[in-house]
Amino acid sequence: MQNLRHFPVIALSLTFFSILAFSFSQNQQYNEEKNFEGSSDLVNLEYHMGPVLASSINLYIIWYGRWNAKHQSTIRDFVYSFSSPAQYPSVADWWRTVRLYTDQTGSNITNNINLSGEFYDFKYSHGRYLSRLSMQSVIKNAVTASPGTLPLNYHNGVYLILTSDDVQVQDFCRAVCGFHYFTFPSIVGVTVPYAWIGHSGIQCPGMCAYPFAWPAYSGRPPPRTNGGNNIMSAPNGDVGTDGMISVIAHELAEVSSNPLVNAWYAGDNPIAPTEIADLCLGVYGTGGGGGYVGVVYKDSWGNGYNLNGVKRRKFMVQWVWNPVKRRCFGPNALD
């Protein structure tokens, strides 16, 4: 998380990926097992008495910029997969770990995430460079512009701003791949949780679309699922979009468990918390960590994935911290 002019934003940091580039072992393969999945002795994740998103979530997507319809379809299907049945291990099974987090009344995070509206900001209402704070103005535009205005839902709404690959965002690719926070009444009119994720396909796939791309300065790519040194192929055919999928999951998990930055996080400073997905960056399967994704599956074309979704979709999504097992966990775990 960064502090920008006293405007804190909960961010998916790129520091981890810098570490990855120098920690990769030449002999590692994706079917190896190593115990790098977190330690209950080192993690002090605490509840700070704030709310979690226990009511059904009405998710509103703001498509900022010019989007490829095929990429939009992939993302929609991923969102639909949170609350729809699919072959195990599924996206809905992955969300069950997030649901283990409760508020002070004992209410769990909801299992209902509904795509309730979309807004197409294809005219770049706030330009092709966005500051972090300007994200709130993008939301304000989406709930006031016409036609196609989104409702301003302060009861159970979450707003997801997705920027196209030609939009630059403050600190994108340098320090963050996505972030979440909540709106200020002085800008939007009410307080609602939101998240932003950028499409990194052109700007920094090696930073924000791991493991489908590798940082240019690393000197070599990660191995494939079946060994070797080729890049792992993206299961839905686009590195930037498939990379976004995991960041979207990351931010939805954290905005649900820490929507007002006063619920679930580790550390004493809410301006720079470590949240439930931050603890498991880069871990996608058993043995993951230190630049190795862990044990994952491969489809008939050799593309890597660890979750199933609707319409026979395959997705690669990082694990999150399981408060019961006290370690990073996903439904594709071998133990």
UniProtKB/TrEMBL annotation:
Organism name: Fraxinus pennsylvanica
Signal peptide (residue range): 1-21
One Pfam family here: Phi_1
Domain of life: Eukaryota
InterPro entries recorded: EXORDIUM-like (IPR006766)
Keywords: Apoplast, Membrane, Secreted, Signal, Transmembrane, Transmembrane helix
Major place of residence: secreted
Localization annotation: Secreted, Extracellular space, Apoplast
Keyword field contains Zinc: no
Protein name: Protein EXORDIUM-like 7
The organism's taxonomic lineage, starting at the top: Eukaryota, Viridiplantae, Streptophyta, Embryophyta, Tracheophyta
One Gene Ontology CC term in the entry: apoplast
Transmembrane segments: 49-67
Family that this chain belongs to: Belongs to the EXORDIUM family.
